[in-house]
Specification:
The structure holds two protein chains of two kinds. Chain A is mainly beta. In chain A, 0% of the residues lie in helices and 43% in strands. In chain A, the strands form three sheets. In chain A, strands 2, 5, 6, 9, 10 and 11 form a six-stranded mixed beta sheet that branches. Chain B contains no helices and eleven strands. In chain B, strands 2, 4, 5, 6, 9, 10 and 11 form a seven-stranded mixed beta sheet that branches. Chain B has a four-stranded antiparallel beta sheet with strand order 1-3-8-7, with no helix packed on it. The chains are: A mainly beta, B mainly beta. Chains A and B meet through strand 6, strand 9 and strand 10 of A and strand 5 and strand 10 of B.
């Protein structure tokens, strides 16, 4: 079964501290994983996708197939990073995403 | 370039009633997906439409149905509403049905069933 698990519903860090949002997945085959973000009073939007191997707004995410994880990391958190973050996995059929339950990140000034 | 728009933004219905939610996809996008997001949960896939045909369906009963029109706008219809249908309904458009790219979400329609 395809599934995404985000174990932390809430996460608070101080400004300038490192942040890591955890994501584990269950998938048969080579997964395509994404992080979506929803800032306050904004719509859900793509943050980054693992196939691009890019850093967006200072965030990176590495796919670890051995640990079936795709944790989102940033070395120095900023106040504007406060948002709801969803890890997502695209289905084998390629027509749907499986989303985790989300982690609400608060960066304390 | 206009983004994804949904209507209505909020609505209240009673059990047993029917509801229609509407979505206009982003300019140039031919694929529309619908997701249900219950409180405290992540979005859950309902179905996807590509060029007016259903292209995949999640684990939702047949009383959830949809349409896509030639201009790629879409409707989600829910019959015989139940209390558990209370949720935020998100529409997302994309350029291709494979969703290898990005989903562009609307702001959602919040449905309350009493």
């Amino acid at each position: 079964a395809q599934r995404v698990t985000q174990p932390e519903k809430l996460l608070s860090v101080f400004k300038g501290a490192p942040v890591e949002l955890k994501c584990n997945y269950s998938y048969s085959g080579s997964p395509e994983l994404f992080w979506y973000v929803q800032y306050s009073r904004q719509r859900l939007q793509l943050l980054l996708r693992h196939i691009s191997r890019e850093s967006i707004k200072g965030f990176t995410a590495d796919l670890n197939k051995g640990e079936t994880s795709f944790h989102l990391k940033k070395p120095f958190a900023q106040e504007e990073d406060s948002a709801m973050y969803y890890c997502a996995l695209i289905s084998v059929t390629g027509n749907q995403f499986y989303f985790g339950t989300g982690t609400s990140l608060t960066v304390i000034p | 370039e206009t983004g994804v728009t949904q209507s209505p933004t909020h609505l209240i219905k009673t059990r047993g009633q029917q509801v229609t939610l509407r979505c206009s996809s982003q300019s140039g996008h031919n694929t529309v997906s619908w997701y249900q997001q219950a409180l405290g949960q992540g979005p859950q896939f309902i179905f996807q439409y590509y060029r007016e045909e259903e292209n995949g369906r999640g684990n939702f009963p047949p009383r959830f149905s949809g349409l896509q029109f030639p201009n790629y706008s879409s409707e989600l219809n829910v019959n015989a509403l139940e209390l558990d249908d209370s949720a935020l309904y998100l529409c997302a458009s994309s350029l291709d049905r494979l969703n290898t790219g990005e989903l562009f979400f609307g702001e959602g329609s919040r449905l309350t069933v009493l």
